[in-house]
Structure formats: C-alpha cells, structure tokens
C-alpha cells in the first residue's frame, strides 16, 4: 500500500502560526477530531448529557470536566484497542451551569455534580481504519470503562505515613481510606501498565483554616490554605455539600490530599492508591524510569512559585515480565523508597546573572546539582521531623534542607531514549520582586513571564544517584527578544512559546511541549523540538487550541501515529457564561473541555 512507514525523526511538519481563533489548528496533511467531551457516557448506564438537568449520579458515569493528563495504554495483545486514562483537574461552574450567579447560589446537587466532574476517566478506545484515528468503543460493552470521582471513590493510602495520626479523621479512624481525589493535574504511565496522577491545588477545596488548631496553622499556610479567613477567595464552597471540607471541624482531612495517585486501569475493581512514600505537595505529576539497577525512579515537580523538584527511588526492583506475579510485585514498587529534593547551583559567576536573561560569558545557563535525601522508608533525614512528618509536610522538609526555589516546576519527565530528564518551569512573575528570591542561573529571569525548560543529566547516567548536571535548553518567549534562548539554534527559525506546562516524547526522542497561559497574547498550543544534535532547540508549533483553553496531555502513542491532547477550559475568560460563551468549541453551542486526537492523513509518524 501507499502508507508511509519509518520511524519518527526529523520534524518536517509545516509550522502552525500563532493565532487567537476559536478552533484547533493543525499542520497541512493532518486531521484532528474529538475523542471524548465533557458529559459523554463512560460507565454503563450513563444518561445522555442534559445541560439543563445535570445530576451527580449522571456525572459520576459521564466524562468529567477539564481534562488534563492523558495516557493511552495498549490492551495487551492488540494494536488497535487501548485504554484512554484522563485526569479531570477542576470545574468551571460558570461555564457548566446555565444561569450561574455565584457558587453560593448553586444547589447542593450542583456542588455534587462539580465533585463528580473531578477525578479520572478510564475509557476503552479503538483504532478507526489504518491511521492514527481513535474512537471510544461503541460496538460492544466496554469492560474497563470507569469513573473515579472526588464525590465517592474510595482510595487506599499506602506507605510509611498511612495510618499515622496525621492522616486519621472522624470518618476514617484508620487513617488509610480517603474519599476522592482532588485537582489531578499531570501524570505518567508506568512500565507495568498503571497511571500516576498528581493531586495539585487541593487547598482551594477547604474552608475554615482560620479555626484550625494552632499547631496545624503554619503547615496549612505553607500549603496555601488561608489561616485567617473562613472562606478564602477562590474557594469552591464544597463544605456546603460535605462537612469534611471544613478544617475547623476536620483539620486532618487536608492531609489526605496532595499525594501521587496510582490507578490500575486494567483492574476496574481495584481501589486507586495514594502513595505517601512519594511525599505530599502540590504534585503536578510523576513520571518513572527504570534505573540500570532495576530500581524505579519517579521525577516530580511541586507547582508553586519558589517550590521544589523531587525524585523518589523505590526500595524494590522492577521485574520486566508480564506474568501476573511480576505485575503484582511491580504494583508495590511505589509503596516504599527514598525521597530526595533538588538543590542546584550555577557554574557562572553570580555577578553574570543579572535577572535580565542575558547569557553568562560561558554561553549557557548550566551547572551542577545534588539530590538531598529527605526520608528513606521509616527513617527521616530531617532533624526535628519524623518520617511521617517529612512525607506529610514535605515542603517544610525541603525548606529545612535549603532546596532550590524554582520557577513553578510543572511536568517533569525522563526521556526513555537518552535518560535525560526535562522539567517545565512554567513562569514566576514574583521572581526577584520585592523580598522574593532573585534570579539565579537555574531561574535566570526576574519577573519571569514566559518560563523555561530545565534539563537534568544524572551523573554516570545513574538515576538512583545523588549528583547531576543541568542546563536550560530553552528559555521561552518571543524569539526576537534578547532574553530568550533556543538551544543555540537560529532564533529566526523557531516558533514563539510561552508558559511551558507539560512535556512528552515521541519514539525518536523529540521533545513535545504544551503550554498554559501564553503571555504573548496568542492561544496556547503544542510544540515540538529535537533535543539532541544540530536540531536541538529548533522548536516548531504543531497545534493551537481554541480561545481561553490550555493545552494538556500531550500523549504520543508508542507507534508515533497519534498525538492525544486534552483541550482544557475552552472559553475560560472572565465574564463568560453558558449564555455568553467566549468559546463555542467543539460543537458550536457552548464550550466543552474535550480530548482530541490528531493524526497524519497518510498514516505516517506524527511530526515527521
Ligand atoms: Fe495544573 Fe501545574 O498545572
Ligand atoms: Ca553557565
Ligand atoms: Ca499542568
Ligand atoms: Ca498549569
């Protein structure tokens, strides 16, 4: 046949121009289509979506709101069937409920709809024809389809902090069973076929921090909870539906969120788990690589201005086998291990880092770093903190060992081709402002609006080690501006990029970057660049998303034929509503978050 073969490689696609259209735009020779949108049926018995009659029971069986992380896991033995696993990070009630006049005026049932619209979805999908086009399975009853919600799904806590007093509540004196997951942002797929998902801005769901116990307040404050107002601005008012969100009554409930969640999509009956051994912070996500020794190493970011980069090294070793006993073993890998935080230093004189983004005289933002051990199993390495303290209040442990304050660490992912690790520092407009930490070589711009990419190379290629070198391959912004850097590539030939959020790789090792909050004024999008060799830094825009939307995912399938993107919060513009939408994507009526798939019309590898 005429279908081109060959692996992904040089990025020859036609660059997409920045724009402000209410549409998804893609290069010539590609097609794109919605796979699933908010409200589509997921579980058996899901009612048809009815905007004007939403129920929590219905939403608990339908595709949730604000899709973020996307993972595609092939069903063993099939090239044409897979499980699509998606995070639903948060809700836009003003764009969900007709006649919205404020959270205080929502009914308790509507609040529960919002809770059910959070969480994750697992959906069986199947390839259409011979290209990279995929659709939800409709032909037979999908076996694996599942909704996980903030409203009622039971999670198991694992690891050294599980069951400790900090995690016990009136409803759960065991300290081991949590209802729901909150603000699931990015994530990763493990080699043993599960999905990791990060609980990020969980503070916004709780009220009553002003009435929390005095000893809890400094910790709550470090995690962004208000300790002075009952209802901090931006609060979601869920205490009206479930009392557990009131810290005045249930202060430990807050400690049961902010973890890495592991979901086994191939076992619909298995409770999802929250792994305390991986620490508690505003987890963007987690991505793992198997070290040469066989230990599993997870890289993680805490997405807050001036917060930290972490890694987790498992105690046990990965077993590379599909046998059920091996999978059972691998499912326990993230339950015990050692947690580290990053401390980095530049190699150029501090006087050459002036906060303007000007390259130092050695021509690179680069240097060395250390992984500082915080806790190993039940043994704390931080004076004055127990292991359970370190795991539950990991930010305070990072503060105590003087971890390096970064410009909002978002997605962190190792390249399975080179073993190098890439982290998106999305932006930090407070850098160097007032008494805040000034620019350093790793975060080289004050009032950093556009963000940068941070590359880690572990010494001797050992992912379990404690020392590394680092550099910034891309300093984002308008390539015409002096404070940007694209790996030394000709800046006249690259696309403008702002606010990198998620990273992914194709099988050739090209780095794909999606953005959130383009400070250059155009819509967000998806970009790709080679990261090795002469093309390093040749960044090209592949796709743009509609007005008000953020580009999440992305996920490139193992055969390189499809790229999945989560179009999150289309139409999220102040003052917009169902009646006066800022976006009518994807169906022409009102805005709906949706996962799309983009493929090459001729079936060839994406990007090439
Ligand atoms: Fe939910 Fe850090 O983006
Ligand atoms: Ca340098
Ligand atoms: Ca994100
Ligand atoms: Ca983000």
From TrEMBL:
UniProt xrefs under Pfam families: PhoX (PF05787)
Xref: InterPro entries: PhoX, TAT_signal
The protein, known as: PhoX family phosphatase
Lineage, opening ranks: Bacteria, Bacillati, Actinomycetota, Actinomycetes, Micromonosporales
């Amino acid at each position: 046949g005429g279908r081109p073969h060959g692996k992904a490689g040089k990025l020859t696609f036609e660059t997409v121009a920045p724009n402000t259209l209410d549409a998804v735009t893609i290069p010539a020779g590609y097609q794109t289509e919605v796979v699933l949108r908010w409200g589509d049926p997921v579980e058996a018995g899901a009612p048809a979506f009815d905007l004007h009659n939403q129920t929590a029971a219905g939403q608990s069986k339908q595709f949730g709101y604000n899709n973020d992380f996307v993972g595609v896991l092939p069903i063993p033995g099939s090239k044409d069937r897979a499980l699509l696993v998606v995070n639903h990070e948060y809700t836009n009630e003003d764009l969900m409920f007709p006649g919205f006049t404020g959270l205080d005026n929502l009914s308790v049932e509507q609040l529960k709809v919002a809770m059910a619209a959070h969480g994750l979805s697992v959906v069986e999908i199947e390839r259409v024809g011979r290209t990279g086009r995929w659709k939800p399975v409709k032909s037979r009853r999908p076996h694996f389809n599942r909704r996980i919600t903030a409203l009622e799904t039971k999670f198991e806590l694992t690891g050294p902090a599980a069951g400790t007093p900090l995690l016990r509540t009136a409803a759960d004196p065991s300290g081991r069973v949590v209802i729901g997951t909150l603000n699931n942002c990015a994530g990763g797929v493990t080699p043993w076929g599960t999905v990791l998902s990060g609980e990020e801005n969980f503070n916004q769901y709780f009220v009553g921090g002003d009435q929390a116990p005095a000893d809890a307040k400094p910790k709550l404050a470090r995690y962004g909870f208000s300790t002075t107002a009952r209802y901090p601005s931006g609060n979601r008012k869920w205490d009206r539906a479930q009392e557990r969100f009131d810290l005045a009554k249930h202060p430990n409930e807050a400690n049961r969120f902010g973890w890495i969640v592991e979901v086994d999509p191939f076992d619909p009956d298995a409770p999802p788990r929250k792994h305390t051994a991986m620490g508690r912070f505003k987890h963007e996500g987690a991505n793992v690589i198997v070290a040469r020794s066989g230990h599993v190493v997870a890289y993680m970011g805490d997405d807050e201005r001036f917060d930290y980069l972490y890694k987790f090294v498992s105690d046990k070793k990965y077993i590379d086998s599909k046998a059920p006993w091996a999978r059972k073993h691998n499912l326990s890998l993230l339950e015990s291990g050692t947690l580290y935080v990053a401390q980095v230093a530049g190699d150029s004189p501090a006087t050459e880092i002036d906060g303007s983004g000007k390259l130092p005289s050695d021509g690179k933002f680069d240097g060395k770093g250390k992984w500082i051990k915080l806790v190993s199993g039940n043994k704390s390495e931080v004076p004055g903190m127990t292991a359970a303290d370190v795991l539950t209040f990991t930010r305070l442990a990072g503060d105590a060992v003087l971890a390096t304050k970064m410009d909002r660490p978002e997605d962190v992912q190792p390249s399975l081709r080179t073993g190098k690790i890439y982290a998106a520092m999305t932006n930090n407009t407070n850098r160097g402002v007032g008494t805040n930490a000034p620019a350093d070589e790793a975060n080289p711009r004050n009032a950093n609006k556009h963000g940068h990419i941070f590359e880690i190379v572990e010494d001797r290629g050992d992912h379990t080690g404690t020392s590394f070198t680092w550099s910034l391959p891309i300093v984002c912004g308008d390539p015409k501006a002096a404070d940007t850097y694209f790996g030394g590539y000709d800046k006249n030939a690259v696309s403008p990029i702002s606010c990198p959020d998620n990273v992914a790789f194709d099988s050739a090792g090209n780095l794909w970057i999606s953005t959130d909050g383009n400070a250059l004024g155009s819509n967000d999008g998806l970009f790709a660049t080679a990261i090795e060799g002469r093309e390093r830094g040749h960044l090209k825009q592949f796709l743009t998303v509609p007005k008000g939307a953020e580009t999440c995912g992305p996920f490139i399938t193992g055969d390189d034929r499809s790229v999945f993107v989560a179009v999150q919060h289309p139409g999220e513009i102040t003052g917009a509503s169902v009646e006066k939408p800022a976006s009518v994507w994807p169906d022409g009526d009102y805005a709906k978050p949706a996962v799309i798939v983009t493929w090459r019309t001729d079936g060839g590898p994406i990007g090439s």
